[in-house]
Design goal:
Blueprint: H1 3-25, H2 29-39, H3 43-64, E1 87-88, H4 90-106, H5 111-119, H6 124-141, H7 144-153, E2 158-159, H8 170-178, H9 182-202, H10 205-208, H11 211-232, H12 234-243, H13 263-272, H14 282-300, H15 312-331, H16 338-343, H17 349-375, H18 381-391
Antiparallel strand pairs: 1-2
Subcellular location: Cell inner membrane
Main location: membrane
Membrane topology: Multi-pass membrane protein
């Protein structure tokens, strides 16, 4: 069996596990933000943070045992995407994260949740996936990304290598400023940060009182870390070496783990090329796996249900959400899983910045929707936006035109 096939089968198999348990435990980052904003429940948010903490410790452990080569993640030629590159592209992380956060709220879930819902019979998710695919395709396979965003963003990017900083990993940056050795500093930072995130998760009964929250976070971290082992370990390194000898390298090859900002665009490209085998990417196989895993659980638990749009407005809102997720996900180089867990597990500064922007964009969108629902015609977009920002302590209360509800 060809080594590429083995890697793709790993992607599919791990994603089946992810889809199965994400459906069972209702692991959902948009739902996590909604729980906090609307009812004050932090259980699913802590499940996400628990997954991040575990993934950080898992990647650290693999590196200490010599089972992976994490330097591959910092190289544009060997990673997809290169989370740890020395080029700190902070504007794309902020704007991309905000756009993605808005989109996932309008689309009723992030890229992973869209696939999970699709596997459970939600027909709406097919349209969200395809809408997301259109803009993802444009961002990846055309000049749209550069023309619309990168052309004016790039001058603000910070090249850390000009200051003799090898990459944007928190451990590397801290080691540079305090004058310590990079590897040991990275290990200490990973152990402290991962441990603190896990501790924070368990401090609330919202999290520890729910087996599903614990299981969901554990499974997400497990599959992300295992995927890193596959693509940056012996198997992945051998594949990269073999690829250098190929006349035509497979598309989107490299050190990577789970991200769901790419699959929809890869899917449309795959269809466009007549289902070319060169488009069997890690991300595409992961998407197929999540749908299969979700479908299996939904059938076994007898929860498979067809769901359609409530009305035309519902349809339009979901399509807009999908379009925005495609733009934001590629611009930010990842989604709630791709940056929120996979990227964060590498300690990349851009990943944490993206997570913050996604949560902010999602929470603010929910606030605006809430005020427009409560105040109806009185609540213009501007008034709802200011009220939402005031609720989130980002503007003084004196600025608001709508009373807090």
């Amino acid at each position: 069996m060809e080594i590429l096939t083995v890697v793709l089968l790993w992607a599919f198999g791990l994603a089946v596990v992810l889809g199965f348990f994400a459906t069972k435990t209702n692991f959902c980052t948009m739902g996590a933000v909604s729980d906090v904003v609307n009812i004050g429940d932090t259980g699913r948010m802590r499940s996400w943070v628990f997954a991040i903490g575990l993934a950080i410790l898992g990647v650290m452990g693999l590196s200490l045992l010599g089972l992976t080569n994490t330097s591959l993640i910092a190289n544009n030629d060997t990673a997809n995407p290169p989370y740890l590159t020395a080029n700190f592209a902070w504007p794309r992380h902020i704007l991309g994260g905000l756009i993605f956060g808005i989109g996932m709220t309008l689309g009723s879930g992030c890229g992973n949740k869209t696939l999970v819902r699709l596997g459970g019979g939600n027909i709406k998710s097919i349209f969200v996936f395809l809408a997301m695919g259109v803009t993802t395709y444009l961002m990846i396979f055309t000049n749209f990304s550069y023309t619309a965003f990168l052309s004016w963003m790039e001058p603000a990017f910070i090249d850390l290598s000009l200051n003799d900083i090898e990459n944007q990993g928190l451990g590397t940056v801290i080691a540079h400023f305090i004058g310590t050795e990079i590897e040991s500093t990275t290990t200490i930072v990973a152990a402290l940060l991962g441990g603190l995130l896990i501790l924070w998760a368990f401090l609330s009964n919202d999290f520890r009182g729910s087996l599903d929250n614990i299981l969901g976070g554990f499974i997400v971290a497990l599959v992300v870390v295992t995927a890193w082992w596959v693509t940056t370990g012996e198997l992945g390194q051998t594949l990269l070496e073999e690829a250098e000898m190929m006349d035509e390298q497979p598309f989107a090859l490299g050190a990577q783990s789970f991200t769901f900002s790419q699959p929809s665009g890869h899917f449309l490209r795959w269809v466009e090329t007549g289902f070319s085998s060169s488009l069997y990417t890690f991300a595409l196989m992961a998407a197929f796996g999540v749908v299969v895993g979700s479908f299996l659980y939904s059938i076994l638990a007898r929860k498979f249900r067809f769901e359609w749009f409530a009305n035309w407005k519902d349809f339009v809102v979901h399509i807009i959400g999908g379009l925005l997720m495609g733009i934001g996900g590629v611009l930010a180089m990842g989604c709630t899983i791709g940056q929120g867990v996979t990227g964060a597990s590498t300690l990349a500064m851009g990943s944490f910045l993206t997570v913050f922007a996604i949560v902010l964009g999602s929470a603010l969108t929910m606030k605006i929707q809430f005020y427009k629902m409560v105040y109806e015609e009185e609540a213009s977009f501007g008034k709802a936006l200011v009220a939402g920002l005031a609720d989130m302590k980002l503007l003084p209360n004196s600025f608001r035109k709508l009373d807090k509800v």
